Each structure stands twice: as structure tokens, then as C-alpha cells.
Amino acid sequence: MFPFGLCLNASTLRGTPVLRQIEAASRAGFGALELWFADTDAHLKAGGSLTEIRRALDDAGLFVPTMIYLGGWFEASEAEWPSVKAECVRRLEQAAVLGAAHVIAGPPAGFADAFVGAQRYRELLVLGGGIGVLPAFEFLGFVEQYHTIESALEILALADHSRGTTVLDPFHIFRGGGSIESISKLRGKQIAISHFNDAPALPPREQQHDADRVWPGEGQLDLRRYLTLLEQTGYQGWLSLELFREDLWRQDPFEVARVGRETLQRVLQRCQW
Hints:
Blueprint: E1 5-9, H1 18-28, E2 32-36, H2 37-45, H3 50-60, E3 66-70, H4 81-97, E4 102-105, H5 114-131, E5 134-138, H6 149-159, E6 166-168, H7 170-175, E7 191-196, H8 223-232, E8 238-241, H9 246-249, H10 253-270
Parallel strand pairs: 1-2, 1-8, 2-3, 3-4, 4-5, 5-6, 6-7, 7-8
């Protein structure tokens, strides 16, 4: 029996208004939807409300595992940190209204002090615990410092908080030059969510970025091994389809969501789950 729930990351439907994202994910049969603050902000700017989004999610029976994302917090100067922290709290509070479990906290683009970043992450974990939504530290394969599972584990260790988590993604593991075998270094409770996608043979790994991701099963990654290792950690959360493809953004979001779920099912069947 497949041990993970199926989720859609709204990046796959970028440009689609958030209420239609909800409708498309629900109609395709997903159980959850990762939301982006950029999309909820657009809804608010157009005169909508978070309560309206929450009602649509509840009516559709969709859970929100994460909202995306908190940026600038790790590398902010000491003078900037109070205002950046206040913005992070505002985002955590918005996520709580929508019933999210986590908000993804992105890494710095360049190099930054690991001890400072880890202590700020701990501070956000404490604040998030009071709000009811926890930040999850994400590593990204194309950033300089935090691009592997090991680098994310360094921050979790330095933060020294029992509820610290990271985000797994086969594309980022590959792009960062790491090994999927490193998943075995994690415990299930340290994984906030697992994104899911594939990577093509070309361009070369070092040149790949978000837009190069392909449907799961259409690239070169060993997704069967990835899923096996993920299950062995004890993780029982969501497997979230995350692509950043402009060709998909130009298509009917209902069709993209339908094809996406069918693609996930085919991959899982090949993996004999």
C-alpha cells in the first residue's frame, strides 16, 4: 500500500488564481495543495480574503501541508532582522488561517553565517510553535551553501530544536550534487514534506534550474530508490508534484492537474506500491 498522500504544489499551475488552483487540485483527486504566498497575496489584492480561501479548501477537502515561502531571514543584517522577523511572523499567521502545517523557509542565495542562521531558525520555530505553523528549512540544489541534505542537517543540528524539519526534493538532491542515499540520514519527523519531480539528461546537472524539471518518470532520476529510502525514514506525509514549466502554465490548469495525478500514479505503479 502506498504510504504517502498525493499533493499538488501550486507552482505547477503558476498564473492560475488560487481558487481555481483549489478547484483543479480537488477535481484531479489530490488530497492536498501547497500554496504560494504570491497567489494568496494576489487574491487579497483583488478584494478577496483568507477566510474565503480557507472555506474553498475545506469545501474541497484539501489539506495545506506547506505555504511557500519565507525569504531573507537567514542572511538579514542585525539591523534588518527585527523587521524581517515581523514579516515572517505575519506570514506564519496567514498560513495558520489557511490551516497550513508548515511554511517553507528558504536558504540564502550566497554564503551566510551558519550559526546566525541556525539561531534565527530556532527563533522562528519557537514563534511558529506559538502560532501553530512551523517553518521548514529548505535546501536548494542551485544555491552555494545549502544545497545538500547534509547542509540542511547542519542547520537543524545547530538550531537544536526538536521540531526542526527540512524539505526533500529529488531534483534538488540531484542538482546539488548530493546522493539520494543521504535520505537515510534523516528521520521521518525531520521531513516537513517531499516534493516530487524528475530531472532530464540535458542540460548538464550544473546548468539545470527549476524550469528544467520534467514529469516524474520522464527523466533520469531513480525515483523508485528515492521513494524506498523516503519510506524507510518513517515519513508518512505528502508526496507533492512540483514543476516550474512555462509550457504547463499556458495550458488548462484542470488538464495539467489531471495529467499530473495520472503521472504520479504511473510512477507509483512501476515502483510496485
